[in-house]
Every structure is written in C-alpha cells, then in structure tokens.
Amino acid sequence: MNNAFCQLNWILIKWIKTVLSTRTQAALHRATATTRGAAKREKAASRGGPSHLTSDPRYESIKQIMFQEEPRQLPKLTSEDLERHQTILRAWEVVRMEERRKRRGEREIKFKAMERAYEALEDVDQRLFRAACVREANVVFPRQMRVPTETPAKKIWNYLE
Amino acid sequence: MYGLAARSSFTFASKAAATATKRMFAASATQGYQTRLGQYYQNTLRDDITILEYIPPKVRAEQQAAEETRLQAARENLTGTPPNPTKKHKKVRMPKPKVPVVTAHNAPFVKSVTVHIRCREALQNKHHLLSALMALQVITGVRGEVIKSKNDASTWKLRKGMPIAAKVELTGDRMLEFLDKLVEVVLPRMKEYHGLRMSAGDGSGGFTLGFDPSVIGLFPEMEVVYDQFPLITGFHVNINTTAVRNPSGRLLLSGFGLPFVHARKPASETFML
C-alpha cells in the first residue's frame, strides 16, 4: 500500500515538473536533487557503517575538480604542420644550445684567468698564496645578498629581528 | 660578490636590446622565459660558488695526502677491545663518492625538489588523501602521486599496500619557482622560523625541511581555497642537489635565500649557576 502511494506520488511529481517553466524546474532541481552517493551515505550513516561513506561533502567537489574533466587531447597535425612544429622546436633548441655554448666559453675564460692568478700569486708571495688557499669550514652566502628582483619591497630588511 | 649581484640586473636588459637589433627575426623572443632563480644562478651564483670552492691543484694534492695519512693512522691505532672473531661483521656502509675536482662547469645545482605529505588520517578514511593530493596540486601546480605502504605496522593498523601518503617530484623551472615561493613568501610568513641549521644535510647533497599544518595555508594559492579542504596537513620538502657534501650544498641553498644559522645551545645549558 505504501509502495503504491510512493509510486503514484512520483508519477504526479514528474507530470507537475513538465508543466512548470524551465526556470522553475531548475530551481526545483537545485532544491531537491541529491548526489548519487547521498542515499548510500544516509543508509550507511543510519546503520553505523564504514566512515568513508559518511565523509565531508567537500570531497565530492574536490573529486569533481580533480577527476571530472577528460585530459586534453593533443591537436592532430598534418604532415606539413608537424614539420613546421618540429622545425620551430628544433630552432628553439638551437638558440638554447648556442646560449649554453657561449656561457660555457665565458666560464672557461674566467676559470683559466683565476688559475693563472693563483699561479702568479704563488710565484710572487708564498705567504699570501697560502692565505688565499685557506677555506672556511661552513661558508654560506650572507643573507643580505638577496636574489635580485625588478619589484623590490619598500621595506627590505626588518632590522628589529 | 655584492658587486656581481647588483650588476647582473642591469646587464640583462641591455644585452637583450643589443641582440634584438642584430637578429633577423626581430619579433622572435631573444632570451625566452627564464625563472628568477635560474637567471640569478647563471649570472651570479654559479661563478661565485666556483670561485669559493676552487683550490689550486698543488694545495689540493697536499690536503688529500694529509687526509690519507690521518685515515691510515686512525685505522692502525685502534682503540677499545679487539673485535670478536666469531661474530658476524656489521653491514659496511657504501663509501661516499669522492669530492670531484672543481672545474669551470661542475658547480652544484638543485636537481629536484620533492614535496611529500604523509596522511595518517587516510587509514580511517581514504578520502582524506584527496585533501593531500589537492593541496600538493594547489601548491606546486603538478598532479600528485599516491604512495602505498611497503611494510606492515600493526600499532597503527597499517597493512602493506594501503595508500598512506602523496608526493610530487618537481624538476626544472617548476622546481625553481616553488623554491622561490617558499623562500620569498612562505618562510617569512611563518610564526617561528629560525632557518636551517649549519649541520643540515644528509651528507650527499640532500636537504629536508618539515612544516606544520599551519604553514600550508601560507602559500598564496592556498589562501583562496583554504576553506575547501576538509583536512589541512603538514608537509616535507626534500631538496636534492648535485653537491657531493653538505658544505657545498649549504653554500648553494644559502645563495637561493635559505637561511642557515649555527645551532645555539639553549640558555639553560650554557650558563649554570
């Protein structure tokens, strides 16, 4: 008897929904709709079931955000487009390679100059040479040596600390 | 050192302008995007570290000879009771890699940064791992990886294969940007951060920082979505460098802005009435 009444109710509600305007339908849906897991969770909660079914509703939105969207598909390239794409990538790689080579050359020159300076110092004064070779145990860059920025803060250093 | 740091920001703009006029395709990017820390390392830090670590070959040979004689003496002048011949030998540690000669091209650099969240609450409710994963994605911009346990631990009701933690491994530009954010924004905002100790480091170029749950909310991206997280966790940051010993690793990281301080004894231990 109860079951029949529920079914009649359901049919009636469905008919009413078709008569309503779409805006009202949407409002009704927002007010009454439940997620798929909600019924399961209510049941589990009432029975005292496992806690992973009665978890925070925010996890539903997190799951949607993280797993709902399909991963982006790579665009399908024709053979000419693919060639253009590979040429551009290769050209950029060549630019980077040239920059690396230039920097490497500069480093070599600087390093050799430093080695020659040490050798010259050794020939001139042994005491100073030994002093130059002394290395502190735990040397670190001073904190005042900040990484440069184009937009420094107004108050750079909190001297009260 | 200070001079080098100041000059680099001026030469960058003029260099770009000079090359732009020479190139055929003036519209194309001359320098391309480089992270702030990456630029700074190439322009300033790299050479500074090389200069600070360089030792002339003759002196280096003398130092190594002295080290060898010291080790030999230590091996020969054994102290304590002689070892029991019937007992099995303990596991011998793998010898640390030798310190390579300093050249123009082998200054240490950061290799990778791993952000790791261990989520013990995931044992009761698997959904709590979602908080950890989402937090890692918000902070680093990279989708996290779930870690399953390798061992059992009955005291914590842990079985082998249960998902218990999440991690993200960062390399390249993303790693440098994360380090930049950490050093410039998060660490200064912390209530009580005194810096890394001068004894920090694992001996082969790895450094670890651990943070309380309160710190994760200090990231600029987390401020916006803080309320959407049912569970706020702490995290660990493991910085892997190509340094071979602790001091050179500390030198590198101090250049990027991480503060190192000598560990101080608490006042109660230093002064006894």
From TrEMBL, chain A:
Signal peptide per UniProt: 1-21
GO biological process: mitochondrial translation
MF annotations from Gene Ontology: structural constituent of ribosome
Domain of life: Eukaryota
Keywords (A to Z) from UniProt: Mitochondrion, Ribonucleoprotein, Ribosomal protein, Signal, Transit peptide
Locations listed in the record: Mitochondrion
Gene3D superfamilies, per the entry: 6.10.250.3440
InterPro entries: Ribosomal_mL40 (IPR019192), Ribosomal_mL40_fung (IPR042831)
Pfam families, sorted: MRP-L28
A cellular component term, taken from the record's GO annotations: ribosome
Region (Disordered) residue spans: 30-56
Annotated family: Belongs to the mitochondrion-specific ribosomal protein mL40 family.
Name under which the protein is recorded: Large ribosomal subunit protein mL40
UniProtKB/TrEMBL annotation, chain B:
Residue ranges of domain Large ribosomal subunit protein uL5 N-terminal in the record: 105-159
Key word Cell wall biogenesis/degradation present: no
Domain Large ribosomal subunit protein uL5 C-terminal as annotated: residue spans: 163-260
One GO CC term, this protein: ribonucleoprotein complex
Database matches in InterPro entries: Ribosomal_uL5, Ribosomal_uL5_C, Ribosomal_uL5_dom_sf, Ribosomal_uL5_N
GO molecular function (one): structural constituent of ribosome
Region (Disordered): 76-95
Any Pfam family: Ribosomal_L5
Keywords: Ribonucleoprotein, Ribosomal protein
Regions of compositional bias (Basic residues) in chain numbering: 86-95
A GO biological-process term: translation
PANTHER family, sorted: 60S RIBOSOMAL PROTEIN L11-RELATED
Family: Belongs to the universal ribosomal protein uL5 family.
Name of the protein described by the UniProt record: Ribosomal protein
Organism per entry: Coemansia asiatica
Source species taxonomy: Eukaryota, Fungi, Fungi incertae sedis, Zoopagomycota, Kickxellomycotina
Gene: mrpl7
